[in-house]
Each structure stands twice: as C-alpha cells, then as structure tokens.
C-alpha cells in the first residue's frame, strides 16, 4: 500500500507505519517526491489549496480515500473532485475543544465588557459603575448542534445558561434544553441572548442568516460565527450592527479572508474580528494525526472509517 503524505507531517507519521506501507511526500504546491500512480490514500493538511488538491488527483488514478484534517470540506467538493469515486473523511471533532473555549471567551468578553476595560487601562482611567452582566440564566442558541456545538453546550451549561440547538436530525442531546430541526432555528431567535453559528456551509445554509433572521433577534442579542462566513448575508449583518438591531458580533470567519483593510467591519465598535483562529491549538495537530492513524488501521482492516463525509450534503 502507498500513501501520499504532506511534507509538514510526513516525518511524524512515518514511524507509526508498518514496513509494507510506502510513502510519497507532497508539498503545499502539489509537487511530489515520488510516483503516486498506485497510491491509495491521501492525507492532506491544513490550508490545502484547491489547485494542489487537483494536482494530486491528476497524478493518483488509483486513489480511493482522502482524509482532510479540516472540519469543513465544502471548498474541496469541486466538479473535478466529485468526478472521482473517493471516500472522503474529515477532522470533525479535533477542533471542537479550542473552538468551544473560544466561544465562551467571546461571550465573556462581551458580557464583561473586556474591550472597554482594556481601553480604560490603556488610558490610565478608573471608571466605576459598569453595566456588567452574567452568563447565568442567559439563553444560548447554537445553530448546528454537531460535535462543536455539543462541546460549546457542555461548557455553557457550566455557566448556568439555557441552551437551545438545531441539527439536521433533531433529537434530545446532553446539556441542551431543546433541539429542533435544521429548518426550525429561526423560530428560536427571539428567545436567544447569544446566537452561535456552528453549522457546516452547504447550499441550504449559505446565506441563511439573512436580514429577516437578523430582524428576529433581540436588540441585546450577540452573534458569534465560528463556522463559515458565507452562512451570513454580510450586507444585512453590516446593517444590523450599524443600526443596532443587535448588540454586536464576534466574527472569526468572513466571506473574504483575509478581511480587506478597507472592510467596514473593522471599524464597528460592537464587533470583534478574529482571524479565523478559534480552532487554533497545538493539540489539534496531535488529534488530527491520531484520527488519521486510527482510520488508516481501519482502512487496512476493512473496518468502517470514522468521519465519512456525505458529499451530497457537504459534511
């Protein structure tokens, strides 16, 4: 058996492979250090370019399984990719802990008004009587109660929050007070103090948080997006934030990344912009490699793989 491994982690994976498994390394531009025509398995790495993916596909006609460490794989599902009969697995679960911790951080930063406190410290100004709130008793709506959403709920429950969620197949879940179907979350917006977007980007979710949805939110509600920028209609969100339909937003992901310097989102006082870093943690790479190696053992043993993506729905 032959694997195609990214140069970034090939040296870490190779010691865990049996002698019968051969390796071809590929760099970020799609250049390989050997013959990949008989390679069956391809492990890509973070920040994979679609052009690199297509180059790998072109030189590996025997490829059967592609594992991507990313949770969201929507950008890989191009017509060229879908022409191939590939098993695609993703990294769902490996990013859940740092993202969930980031979401709690965004909520605390908002409710405890940390940006204002940092500004006052910089000005050497002591100010009393802040209208600082608590998370306890607040209602959190998680749009997308998958692995990441469930990790968020676990931590939010510890703060005493009421937690609502939505998912494609609604069912009772630990730490959630209520879970509805993927097309029912709009009915919960008027109840939410915090709204977290944690759903994959699909044709159904693209642009789903539109002006009508934003107008259903409470004036004091706070929006957090750690999923994909294209799930939100950005002109509508810009209007909602500028005209104070909602209290503010923490945006870890936007349609155009990096966010252009002239974007009006940078200057809004009620917005926190983070550079798509909510998932960052040194432990993510460790979990990613462990998941791939476990799946590789499953593949070689003919056992069902973990995290198989339904390419028709995009996750």
TrEMBL record:
Gene3D superfamilies xrefs: NAD(P)-binding Rossmann-like Domain
Residue ranges occupied by any D-isomer specific 2-hydroxyacid dehydrogenase NAD-binding domain in the UniProt entry: 104-278
Pfam families in the record: 2-Hacid_dh_C (PF02826)
SUPFAM superfamilies registered for this protein in UniProt: Formate/glycerate dehydrogenase catalytic domain-like (SSF52283), NAD(P)-binding Rossmann-fold domains (SSF51735)
Molecular function GO terms recorded: NAD binding; oxidoreductase activity
Sorted UniProt keywords: NAD, Oxidoreductase
Protein name (record): Hydroxyacid dehydrogenase
InterPro entries in the cross-refs: D-isomer_DH_NAD-bd, NAD(P)-bd_dom_sf
């Amino acid at each position: 058996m032959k694997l195609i491994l990214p140069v970034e982690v090939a040296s870490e994976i190779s010691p865990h492979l049996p002698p019968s498994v051969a390796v071809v390394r590929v760099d970020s531009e799609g250049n390989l250090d050997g013959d990949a025509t008989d390679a069956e398995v391809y492990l890509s790495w973070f920040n994979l370019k679609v052009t690199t993916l297509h180059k790998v596909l072109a030189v590996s006609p025997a490829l059967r399984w592609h594992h991507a460490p990313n949770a969201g794989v929507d950008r890989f599902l191009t017509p060229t990719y879908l022409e191939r009969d590939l098993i695609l697995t993703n990294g769902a679960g490996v990013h859940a802990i740092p993202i969930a911790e980031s979401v709690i951080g965004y909520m605390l930063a908002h409710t405890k008004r940390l940006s204002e406190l940092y500004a006052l410290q910089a000005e050497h100004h002591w100010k009393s009587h802040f209208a600082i709130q608590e998370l306890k008793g607040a209602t959190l709506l998680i749009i997308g109660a998958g692995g990441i959403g469930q990790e968020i709920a676990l931590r939010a429950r510890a703060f005493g929050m009421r937690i609502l969620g939505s998912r494609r197949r609604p069912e009772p879940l630990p730490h959630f007070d209520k879970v509805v179907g993927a097309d029912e979350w709009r009915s919960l917006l008027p109840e939410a103090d915090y709204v977290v977007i944690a759903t994959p980007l699909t044709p159904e979710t693209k642009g789903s948080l539109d002006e009508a949805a934003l107008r259903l939110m409470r004036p004091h509600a706070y929006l957090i997006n750690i999923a994909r920028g294209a799930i939100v209609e950005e002109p509508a969100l810009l209007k909602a934030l500028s005209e104070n339909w909602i209290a503010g937003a923490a945006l870890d992901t936007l349609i155009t990344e990096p966010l252009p310097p002239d974007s009006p989102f940078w200057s809004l006082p009620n917005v926190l912009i983070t550079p798509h870093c909510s998932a960052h943690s040194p432990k993510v790479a460790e979990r990613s490699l462990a998941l791939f190696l476990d799946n590789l053992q499953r593949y070689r043993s003919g056992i069902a793989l973990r995290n198989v993506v339904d390419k028709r729905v995009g996750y």
